[in-house]
């Protein structure tokens, strides 16, 4: 009992997720849901706006993953597939959560979701421009490639939804099997960790704003010329 109290005393709340990363996460949740709803009701113009905004967020996240805060950088959390499999072997072992950022398996899920989001949004912009005859590149792309991009966008949506469901299931498994609360830190940014674990470094919000503006500019150019 005394040992447990001592361990509790040595813990303190640590800011593990910065504001830009959390904002990206929850805006992406809202935009994917919005894209699904607008697609179901055939609200094409709104669907395209959601897709363009989502592409901007994904581009921002890719840049933030290179120069952003420590726990958001790919170099700090992407591990080898072998490390991910070793982690999954203990998936149902109940143990304290002392992971500062993404665990090895979660890191690969992040990469998968980002890749699927990038493919879906880029192909969506091309498909819309091709149908609306807005993008100059749509005139020079061969029909078979244009059809392949359209098919990629259509079927990629279902792959993305399957990945989202898998992600949600993983959150539930970690909560029930391991006792790890993955949602709380992504909401508040904070997590209780032993005092021996250093708080991760955070990047400037001004840098995040600059990267977001750059991402928006890239999306505007793609929407015009793709």
Automatic annotation (TrEMBL):
Alphabetized SUPFAM superfamilies for the sequence: Transmembrane di-heme cytochromes (SSF81342)
Ranges where the Cytochrome b561 bacterial/Ni-hydrogenase domain occurs: 16-189
Membrane-related topology note: Multi-pass membrane protein
Transmembrane segments: 21-38, 106-128, 155-177, 197-223
Protein keywords: Cell membrane, Membrane, Transmembrane, Transmembrane helix
Cell location: Cell membrane
Principal cellular location given in the protein's record: membrane
Protein name: Cytochrome b/b6 domain-containing protein
Organism expressing this protein natively: Paraburkholderia denitrificans
């Amino acid at each position: 009992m005394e040992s447990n109290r001592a361990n509790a005393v040595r813990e303190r709340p640590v800011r593990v997720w910065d504001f830009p990363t959390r904002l990206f996460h929850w805006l992406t949740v809202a935009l994917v849901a919005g894209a699904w709803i607008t697609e179901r009701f055939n609200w094409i113009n709104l669907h395209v706006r959601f897709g363009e905004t989502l592409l901007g967020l994904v581009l921002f996240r890719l840049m933030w993953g290179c120069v952003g805060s420590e726990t958001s950088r790919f170099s700090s959390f992407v591990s080898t597939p072998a490390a991910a499999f070793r982690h999954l072997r203990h998936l149902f072992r109940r143990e304290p959560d002392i992971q500062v950022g993404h665990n090895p398996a979660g890191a690969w899920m992040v990469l998968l979701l980002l890749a699927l989001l990038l493919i879906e949004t880029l192909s969506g912009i091309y498909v819309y421009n091709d149908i609306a005859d807005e993008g100059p590149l749509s005139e020079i792309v061969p029909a078979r490639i244009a059809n392949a991009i359209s098919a990629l966008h259509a079927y990629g949506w279902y792959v993305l939804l399957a990945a989202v469901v898998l992600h949600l299931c993983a959150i539930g498994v970690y909560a029930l099997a391991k006792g790890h609360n993955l949602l709380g830190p992504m909401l508040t940014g904070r997590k209780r960790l032993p005092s021996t674990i250093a708080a991760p470094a955070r990047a400037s919000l001004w840098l995040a704003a600059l990267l977001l503006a750059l991402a928006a500019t890239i999306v505007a150019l793609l929407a015009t010329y793709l």
